[in-house]
Structures are given as C-alpha cells and as structure tokens.
Write a structure and sequence with these properties.
Structural class: alpha+beta
Radius of gyration: 20 Å
Subcellular location: Nucleus
Protein name: Polycomb group RING finger protein 5-A
Strand content: 15-25%
Subunit structure: Component of a PRC1-like complex.
Helix content: 10-25%
Distance between the termini: 62 Å
GO molecular function, one term: zinc ion binding
Oligomer: single chain
Strand order of the largest sheet: 5-4-8-6-7
Function: Component of Polycomb group (PcG) multiprotein complexes; the complex class is required to maintain the transcriptionally repressive state of some genes.
Length: about 240
C-alpha cells in the first residue's frame, strides 16, 4: 500500500508568495487582465511607476491600472490556514499602526459624527447589522467636487453632514453605496471617489487609502478627505 506524502508549506510557496517582495501574499490582489496575484501594497506601489504587470509585462490599463485590481479573499483565507501565526502577526501589525496614528475605536481625534451603517448589506434604516464597532475607526470628510459644466441629472449635491467615523475596513464601493443613499440617488448611479485627485478603486479600503495616499499629507492632515463626483468616462 503506497504511503501518502505529507505536503509542507514550502511545496505551495510559488502559489502563495508575492513575486515583488518575495514574502507571503498579504491581502492578495489579482490583476484582472492576466490573473497574476501580488500583495496589495506591492502591486499598488508598482503601478505608481508602471502600468504593466510585473509578472508578464502585459499593459493593464492605459491610464488607471488600479481599477483592474481585485482582492482575492479566498486565497487570503487559504494562506492564513497554511501559514501558522500569519493572521495574528498581520492583525497585530495593523493594530499597532493605527495605535501609532491615534485612530482608536473610542478616540476623540477629528470631528464628532454619527457613525454610519456602512456594511455591504446596509439599508440605512438603522436596524441591526454589524457596524464593525470592534474595528479600528477612522474619521473622514466626504467632500463634493464642484460640478464643472454639468447640469440636470448629472449634478451631485454635497452632504449636509460630510464628516463621518467608520471602520478602517470599509471599502470605496461601500462609500459609494452610502453616498447614493444619503443623496437619494439610484443605487446604479455611477460615482467617482478620489483622494488627492486620484480615482480610488471600489475594493480599496479606507485603511489602504490612508496608508498609501493620505498619509503623504503629513500627520497634521486629519481627518482624511475623500472627494466624490459623477463618474467621468474617459473612453
């Protein structure tokens, strides 16, 4: 009777490591054009200098390759199960980062604001739901970009209360849903959300945007400002 070979973690390394940093994939993010996967922070930093996939060299997008990135939650869970202690290590580093930046769940930094329901299943009725209260929190300002030359249905109004506090895990896609509800627009209405003038992808979390975009403003620049406008199709 043949004995079954025991697999080691290193047997799967080529599937669970990032070719950019050579470490285990952290928040594995796939390029939708070629399906090559990298750490989220690694591929975003790469796209600061190039719009080509670092693995195969294919041009991902002519102007905004970040739009072609998708988080792979299934692969993330597989990696955490394969590599003992990796999840705890990442959670510890994340908590330490937010502690240093004074973005605690019960902190008083930034304007006081009602905590919105920003879960993916949000119905804005205030009933039940997981509000991610145990997550690190961040205060943000949702500012409406001036409507240049737009009229009629294309005009987007500003929020009456533009300062909110929510989980750092909230995504841009959820922020867009929140805006549509608050501005009484159809859920199918297309919005762009920008940070420092750059369009953010729908899967980007507030934590990620703060680390890679907003923190460049300096520690005194708080709360983080996200701007929104009707989506512009660049063709």
């Amino acid at each position: 009777m043949a004995t079954q070979r025991k697999h080691l973690v290193r047997d799967f390394n080529r599937h669970i490591t990032c070719s950019i940093c050579r470490g285990y994939l952290i928040k594995p993010t796939a390029v939708t054009e070629c399906l090559h996967t990298f750490c989220k922070s690694c591929i975003v930093q790469h796209f600061e200098e190039s719009n080509e996939c670092p693995e195969c060299g294919i041009q991902v997008h002519e102007t905004n390759p970040l739009e072609m990135l998708r988080l792979d939650k299934t692969l993330e869970e597989i990696i955490f199960k394969l590599v003992p202690g990796l999840r705890d290590k990442e959670e510890q580093q994340e908590s330490e980062f937010w502690r240093k930046n004074k973005l605690k769940s019960n902190g008083e930094d930034g304007p006081r604001a009602k905590k919105p329901c920003l879960s993916d299943e949000e119905e804005d009725d205030g009933k039940g739901g997981d509000y991610h209260r145990s997550d690190p929190q961040i205060a943000i300002c949702l500012d409406c970009l001036r409507n240049n030359g737009q009229s009629g249905e294309s005009i987007v109004k500003g929020l009456m209360k533009k300062f909110i506090r929510c989980s750092t895990r909230v995504t841009v896609g959820t922020i867009k849903k929140f805006l549509c509800v608050k501005l009484k627009m159809p859920s199918s209405y297309e919005l762009d959300v920008l940070c420092n003038g750059e369009i953010m992808g729908k899967d980007h979390t507030l934590e990620f945007i703060y680390r890679t975009r907003w923190r460049l403003q300096g520690e005194s620049a708080y709360p983080m400002v996200l701007e929104y406008r009707p989506r512009i199709d660049f063709g």
